[in-house]
Structure formats: C-alpha cells, structure tokens
Amino acid sequence: MQAWQVHENGEPSEVMRLADVAQPVPGDGQILLRVRAANINFPDVLMCRGQYQVRPPLPFTPGVEICGETPDGRRVIANPALPHGGFAEYAVADAAALLPAPDSLDDAEAAALHIGYQTGWFGLHRRARLEAGETLLVHAAAGGVGSAAVQLGKAAGARVIGVVGGADKAAVARELGCDAVIDRRGEDVVAAVREATGGRGADVIYDPVGGDAYTQSAKTVAFEGRIVVVGFASGTIPSPALNHALVKNYAILGLHWGLYATKNPKLIQHCHEQLTELAARGAIRPLVSERVPLSGAAAAVQRVGDGVTTGRVTVLPGLENGAAA
User: Fold this and answer.
1) What global pTM score does this model have?
2) Burial zone of 200 (CB within 10 Å; 0-12 exposed, 13-18 middle, 19+ buried)
3) What pLDDT digit, counting tens, does each position of 126-140 carry?
4) How many other β-carbons are positioned within 10 Å of the β-carbon of residue 190?
5) Tens of pLDDT along 147-158?
6) Statement: residue 320 has pLDDT above 90
7) 3-state SS string over 4-36?
8) By the 8 A CB rule, do 100 and 74 touch?
9) Which residues pair with 67 in a beta bridge?
10) Contacts (Cβ under 8 Å, ≥6 apart) of 199
11) What does 212-269 look like in DSSP terms, one character per residue?
12) Distance between CA atoms of residues 269 and 251, nearest Å
C-alpha cells in the first residue's frame, strides 16, 4: 500500500515522504481499516516537527482522524493507532473505540466531525457550561477547530463573536453564522469585543491559539466568564496572571480531550450521539474547504501548519483513482 512516512522531524513538506509499505498488522483489540478520508489536524503538523506531546517512533505515518471502512463494509470514524496513521491507504485502530459515521455526512465531512467537534462539545458544554443567550468568543473562528466551536455555539443558542486573521477568513466566519466578526489584522480586538458586548465582555472564550489571543481573552472576559484553553496554535504558551483571574472573577479552564478516552470513554460515545443528532438536523456540518488526493497530503499538511487554510482540509485516497468520496 501507499503511505506517507516521517523519517526525521521537521516541516511537513520536507519530512513527509510517500512510500510503498506493507499493510499494518492489527494487534490485540485492533482492526484494519481502509482509509476513505483522513482529516488534517494541527497535531499532525506538530508531530512532524517533533513538538507534540505524543511522539511516535520514527518512521511513522501521521494522520490522527479518519473515516474508514471495516472488513465487513461498515463506515466508521476512528483515531488510528500510531505509528500507523491515516495518511495511507490502510490504517489500524482500536476496535472498541470505533464510532459509526453519520449517514448525513459524506466521507470527508465524517472524518472531520470527530476531534474538532468533540473538543468543541466538551469545551463548551462539559467544561464551560455554555448557556443559551450567553456570548461566546471564538479565536481563529474560520479554522478547523474554531469553525466547529462556532457551529456548536450557535446550535446551543449563544451569540457568537468570531476573531479571524484576514478578509477571506472573515467572510468564512460570517458564512458559519458568527453574529459579529473581528479581523485582528485591521481591528483592535479588545476594543471591538467591548463594543460588540456593550462593555460587558464575553461569557465564554474558546482559545485554540494562545499567545496574544489569550492576552486579549483576559482583557475581554465578562464577570463570571470562562476562558477555555484548547491549544497553542500560535506557538506561544501564555503564563496567566492568577491575581487577574481573582480580581475579575473569571475561570481559566484547560481542555485535553484525549484524556477522556482513558478517564471516561463513555462520554465520548455520548458526545458522538449528540453530534450525530445535530448533524442529522443540519445544525452542524463540517466545513471541508479542500479535498486532496493522497499524493497531495504533505503539501496540505504544510498549508495547515502555515495557517493559510480555512475549515478542514481532508485527504481522500480514493481521488487517486477517480473514486468518489
């Protein structure tokens, strides 16, 4: 089979190499899946660079989220078991953790429903307890993680403010349903949030960026607000001033979605049922901005790492031979 492999750490476009390799052999409790679609996530970029908390042994195949097909023909969503990731024709995954792919979504959309939407659902509902009528501020609102949070916030009845970088991304954020959009490249984010909220600030802030975005969050969070720390796509991990959190009476909430797989896996299943229902009634739908063949995976992962994409970029091995996906 064909698979992308990383033999040394570095930028994805430089270290990912497409090769003919043997199909992975499932271990105990694992299953071999034919990859129908593999969604690109920022952790794939970080793993190529050797900067992620999970460091699979070299060489490895990146790709942490797929829509796959079981040997008996079922369409499922899975997190491949590294080092045999999803940017390949076949991958292996934990059989007990497979989730049914929603009938309402095609392969690319189903592959993109999992990590970003689960993270959004846990962040907004399990951690921040977002309520209808509250104001939700989403950083990087046009990106893969942010776009999921925007849709979930709207589905929950919140007023959503999206922060983006550039006019093209602002247009995407509006199409996603943001009630207000702030372009950080041309606007003062803090002043714009205060204006949009009448000086009150945002009740819940969803931050997958860190760095300057977190600084802005601390200045714009409302009384009894909640800042959900999801990741550090900016590359800068902030050091919160806890005295500031005390004086302004807000909460800083960390979210590591992957921990639920070991700490409380039943919640992941429950979340998937909620997401499937939302997708079935059209309340959420993953924004797949690019569908690329397997041969284009390295360049696509690099674009995600460079921050120039919107929504989700998905790799479809079937495109190589003209198959629909």
Assistant:
1) 0.92
2) middle
3) 999 999 999 999 999
4) 16
5) 999 999 999 999
6) no
7) EEECCCCCHHHHEEEEECCCCCCCCCEEEEEEE
8) yes
9) 37, 77
10) none
11) HHHHHHHHHEEEEEEEEE---TTS------HHHHHHHT-EEEE--GGGHHHH-HHHHH
12) 27
Closest among 280, 306, 277, 302 to 292, alpha carbons compared: 302
The per-residue pLDDT for range 261-312, each reduced to its tens digit, is: 999 999 999 999 999 999 999 999 999 999 999 999 999 999 999 989 999 9
Question: How many Cβ atoms sit within 10 Å of the Cβ of residue 292?
Answer: 19
pLDDT in tens, 243-264: 999 999 999 999 999 999 999 9
For residue 266 the two structure tokens come to 């039943």
Q: Identify whether the C-beta of residue 312 lies closer than 8 Å to the C-beta of residue 291.
A: no
Evaluate if residue 325 carries a pLDDT over 50.
Answer: no
Structure tokens at 302: 């690099």
Q: If you search the block for the tokens 């893969």, which residue do you land on?
A: 144
pLDDT at 54: 87
Token duo for residue 259: 């921990």
Q: Can you tell me whether residue 92 is helix, strand or coil?
A: strand
Strands 30-39 and 90-94: antiparallel
CA distance 267 to 260: 7
Q: What is the mean pLDDT of the chain?
A: 95
Q: Which residue reads 């920022």 in tokens? A: 42
State how far the alpha carbon of 110 is from the alpha carbons of 223, 243, 275, in Å.
Answer: 37, 43, 11
Helix (H), strand (E) at residue 194? helix 189-196
Q: Which residues, 6+ apart, have CB-to-CB distance to 77 below 8 Å?
A: 65, 66, 67, 68, 98, 99, 100, 101, 110, 111, 113, 114, 272
Q: Rounded CA gap, 252 and 250, in Å?
A: 7
pLDDT digits over 47-90, tens only? Answer: 999 998 889 999 999 999 999 999 999 999 999 999 999 999 99
